[in-house]
Design a protein that fits this description.
The protein is built from four helices and nine strands. The chain has 154 residues and is of the alpha+beta class. The strands form two sheets. A seven-stranded antiparallel sheet has the order 1-8-9-2-7-5-4. The protein has a two-stranded antiparallel sheet with strand order 3-6. It starts with 5 loop residues before the first strand and ends with a helix. It is found in: Cytoplasm.
C-alpha cells in the first residue's frame, strides 16, 4: 500500500502555545454523513475543544463542525460530543498518564487520511505564564536573527 494522502482540515496552534505536548496519538472519529461533507469543505474548528475519557471511551467536546448547507433535516448539532475511536490498549495507556498530576488531552489537528477523518490528540502538560513568556522571547530572537541574516545577504 502506498503513502496515503493527508489533507489538513483544522489546526490547533493555541494548544502548542498553552501546553507542552509530551506525546501524540491518532484517533478516528465517529461522524454522520453531513458532518463529513462539511469537513470536506474545511468547515471545522478545534480551538476551544478538549478531549475526555469516560468509561473507557474517548470523547471530544467543543469541536465545532458547521452545518452542511444542503443538509437540511439531516444536519446534527454543530457542537455535539463526538466519540473518538482508538484501540483499548492506547486508551488504557493514556488513562494511566492522565492519572498523573497535570496531564490533559488536547486535540491538535483534524485531517483526512485517505478517505478517513482522523484527529491527532496530544498528551499535554499545562504551561505556566513564565514558560509562555520564554517561548515568545525565543521566537522574537529567532525572528530578529533571520531579519539580520536577510539584511546581510542582500
Amino acid at each position: 500500500m502506498g503513502a496515503e494522502s493527508i489533507k489538513l482540515i483544522a489546526n490547533n496552534k493555541k494548544a502548542y502555545h498553552d501546553y507542552f505536548i509530551e506525546d501524540t496519538y491518532e484517533a478516528g472519529i465517529s461522524l454522520h454523513g453531513t458532518e463529513v461533507k462539511s469537513l470536506r469543505m474545511g468547515k471545522c474548528s478545534v480551538k476551544e475543544s478538549f478531549v475526555r475519557i469516560e468509561n473507557g471511551e474517548v470523547f471530544i467536546y467543543g469541536m465545532h463542525i458547521s452545518p452542511y448547507e444542503k443538509g437540511n433535516i439531516f444536519n446534527k448539532d454543530p457542537m455535539r460530543v463526538k466519540k473518538l475511536l482508538m484501540h483499548r490498549y492506547e486508551i488504557n495507556k493514556i488513562e494511566g498518564k492522565i492519572a498523573e498530576k497535570g496531564y490533559t488531552l488536547v486535540p491538535l489537528k483534524v485531517y483526512f487520511k485517505g478517505s478517513l477523518v482522523k484527529v491527532s490528540i496530544g498528551l499535554a502538560k499545562g504551561k505556566k505564564l513564565y514558560d509562555k513568556r520564554q517561548d515568545i522571547a525565543k521566537k522574537d530572537m529567532r525572528r530578529e536573527a533571520e531579519r539580520e541574516f536577510k539584511v546581510r545577504n542582500l
